[in-house]
Amino acid sequence: xxxxxxxxxxxxxxxxxxxxxxxxxxxxxxxxxxxxxxxxxxxxxxxxxxxxxxxxxxxxxxxxxxxxxxxxxxxxxxxxxxxxxxxxxxxxxxxxxxxxxxxxxxxxxxxxxxxxxxxxxxxxxxxxxxxxxxxxxxxxxxxxxxxxxxxxxxxxxxxxxxxxxxxxxxxxxxxxxxxxxxxxxxxxxxxxxxxxxxxxxxxxxxxxxxxxxxxxxxxxxxxxxxxxxxxxxxxxxxxxxxxxxxxxxxxxxxxxxxxxxxxxxxxxxxxxxxxxxxxxxxxxxxxxxxxxxxxxxxxxxxxxxxxxxxxxxxxxxxxxxxxxxxxxxxxxxxxxxxxxxxxxxxxxxxxxxxxxxxxxxxxxxxxxxxxxxxxxxxxxxxxxxxxxxxxxxxxxxxxxxxxxxxxxxxxxxxxxxxxxxxxxxxxxxxxxxxxxxxxxxxxxxxxxxxxxxxxxxxxxxxxxxxxxxxxxxxxxxxxxxxxxxxxxxxxxxxxxxxxxxxxxxxxxxxxxxxxxxxxxxxxxxxxxxxxxxxxxxxxxxxxxxxxxxxxxxxxxxxxxxxxxxxxxxxxxxxxxxx
Amino acid sequence: xxxxxxxxxxxxxxxxxxxxxxxxxxxxxxxxxxxxxxxxxxxxxxxxxxxxxxxxxxxxxxxxxxxxxxxxxxxxxxxxxxxxxxxxxxx
Amino acid sequence: xxxxxxxxxxxxxxxxxxxxxxxxxxxxxxxxxxxxxxxxxxxxxxxxxxxxxxxxxxxxxxxxxxxxxxxxxxxxxxxxxxxxxxxxxxxxxxxxxxxxxxxxxxxxxxxxxxxxxxxxxxxxxxxxxxxxxxxxxxxxxxxxxxxxxxxxxxxxxxxxxxxxxxxxxxxxxxxxxxxxxxxxxxxxxxxxxxxxxxxxxxxxxxxxxxxxxxxxxxxxxxxxxxxxxxxxxxxxxxxxxxxxxxxxxxxxxxxxxxxxxxxxxxxxxxxxxxxxxxxxxxxxxxxxxxxxxxxxxxxxxxxxxxxxxxxxxxxxxx
Lengths: 578, 91, 318
Prior knowledge:
The complex is a heterotrimer of chains A (578), B (91) and C (318).
Chain A: E1 8-18, H1 23-34, E2 40-43, E3 60-61, H2 72-82, H3 89-109, E4 134-135, H4 142-152, E5 156-158, E6 161-168, E7 174-181, E8 187-197, H5 225-232, E9 237-238, E10 247-249, E11 267-270, H6 284-295, E12 301-304, H7 310-320, H8 328-335, E13 344-348, E14 361-362, E15 375-377, H9 388-409, H10 417-432, H11 439-454, H12 460-479, H13 486-511, H14 531-534, E16 537-543, E17 546-552, H15 563-573
Parallel strand pairs in A: 1-2, 1-8, 2-5, 8-15
Antiparallel strand pairs in A: 3-4, 6-7, 7-8, 9-14, 9-16, 10-13, 11-12, 12-13, 16-17
Helix pairs in contact in A: 1-4, 1-9, 2-3, 3-9, 5-13, 10-13, 11-12, 11-13, 12-13
Chain B: E1 26-28, H1 41-45, E2 51-53, E3 60-62, H2 72-76, E4 82-84
Chain C: H1 13-19, H2 25-37, H3 44-48, H4 56-65, H5 72-82, H6 87-97, H7 106-109, H8 118-129, H9 137-143, H10 149-162, H11 168-174, H12 180-189, H13 196-204, H14 211-224, H15 230-236, H16 242-254, H17 261-266, H18 273-286, H19 292-296, H20 304-317
Helix pairs in contact in C: 1-2, 2-4, 4-6, 5-6, 6-8, 8-10, 9-10, 10-12, 12-14, 13-14, 14-16, 15-16, 16-18, 18-20
């Protein structure tokens, strides 16, 4: 294994789904169910059985819109307000209207949600505005249940193939993708009528404070390949300056407590053991408050559970240490830290792109369509804001159904064999060199520079230096990167995605000349929110080989938001001097 | 100490590479491991693809120090042979 | 350049099935894994031959593998493994039984509930719960008097999932069970109804010796929605455990308990921010204009969550 094998195969399909984590399997299932005669292929860099950010499961749904607890209108309003108004509501509303069906379907798949003694979903209220949290105390069943459905529907699964580029036809329509085997470097050409990108967040962008390349919040397989591929195919990417940054346990990549421990009475505290967060929702505003407290005399910041009953802490540990991040208990054990005894130090994560938590993603409409005809995107990499795991499932379903319909109506697009040749040459270049720089060193340096120059608070001159330094690394990548085996070739291709994303992060951040979304886009030299000039999306795309950003107006709201309501959220947050 | 094997090219013209020993987070109990009977469960489920079966011992081992300590390898191992530790840099 | 097949293949079922006869238990075990991996119903006859495998590790793998198949045949195999002499095997089979969704599986599971061993009886009821089988009701009601607490708890689960008014007397009786877990599930289970008798039984549970039962009772009363519970919940505001006080505050808010406004307000000065917050939230739910001054006095609370809730409550008062 890992030695280079010369090989090239071509397959043809109706619907190609790239990424077998959360959105991908659902997209493939729905496409197949819509029309069982369709040839649906699911391509995955790892193994669908345990791939993606939920490889070990998930501890709960953060945004379940369940009748009797919340309405699609209410949810759409709250997402609009939490995202500082920069929202096309149609996809958000569509998600909110559809997600309850998806929850029930997941329940039938055997994915276990918290239920009361009568077997009804047991939702929890976490913030002031609505009740959206549905815990999954046995959420380790997610991937297993999904994989079972994929197998039952006879969907063609291609594991350990990393997609490198999308292919478009002369008329601009999507025509397929090119992939390379991560253990042999064999080439796979996939011709398709429609392609759905479900490749997760760009979570390997910043370097974690520990310095460990793979200690990221997101599964490090989510190296932004989808963002890079969409960019090179000419698709527009939205609001990339709205980074993902999360509050985590210091040195450990597990999230803290808002949705899991919060309903039990735990909270985020400063060193005096006092609450300080004004914002209700995991948002850029909340991260700014977190950051401010970290930097203040009352810092650092802690997760506080030591006021809870030992039995309650046990119950929380049962969830936090068994599902989603099961190594967490081991981390605390090695440190000798116990939630019962004292508060646990927290910190903020490295930066990334992820619409699942913020709003930075490949631009999509309410049918999950990107700006490239026939190309769809869903999950963390698509621009539906704050859509989390349930959004990935729901929008994956939307994409799968729509792509299946379109695939019926069109012929297989033409395919440029010269492009395949050129891509093969590009991909294999690091395997042809005798001497140079291995991918791990190139990656470390790229990500260290991302931390030094691109993470907020953002400063214009600093980001410009960052751009220049990243350009030097790009030269190295194109002329000196060396891959000794197929595994290293995969890492080399990932570094290329990381570098593309870093360039996009810098470009998008420099374009929006205001501050918005709290810490996510805190530009120190443009410290104010500027609604007159910047109440809009920003779209970034590749034009003539270069990054180009433009403004895009926000689509008229379908759920109207009165001025009164727009400020209501702010007023709930306004601090009073104690 | 379990040390991550660094892929040094065997041929003479290979580029000069350092050998930097690294203690790896994933440890396999060779007495329990049944990879020599045809099992590849841990290798298949690792999202980062860092585990391999050794040609020498026939047992699973961690080849690349690129671990997300996510634990499918440990959880899915049919014989309980795999243990995932927190990488030293984070401990 | 050579072409290759990029798709996952699961191998030849007959060939894998042969490996189930190998002399080496590890090989047989891997064969079970490979067969289950296919998720194809036609592998079940092969797999089920392993129910009688002499090696416990093979049976254990089978007990895990059968959860991949939501089929009546899988249920029959699991029912047998749930009674396995090896406890690890039995536990895994019990877990897998609880994954089944096909109501037809009930028939295979039902015989377990009269097994001689309590573990097996409990596993049976646990498997029957999500199937919501009416046929299980009779045995479940009877087993709510089982000598084993876990069997009683699982049987109670079967009854509670059916949500039938006719089972109220049994559910109410379970609120007085000797085992705290059973009592806790029972008070939770009664929240599907608004019958006064249920409210009375759950209100009585506010005096349970176990704080978690009291806490569950308070939560349940909020959902039952009977104002007859207000007096009990108000008394609960002086419970020794703050967790119970918090749940009582929440329930009083849901019941719009105007008569408790004074006692609720008293908790606005609690040392615990969580209680101050819940108290403000309850006052906001009740929205009695007389609370305005009290709430105004706490608008500058030291805790941001309390301040937010006070502001929200004031908007509710108009």
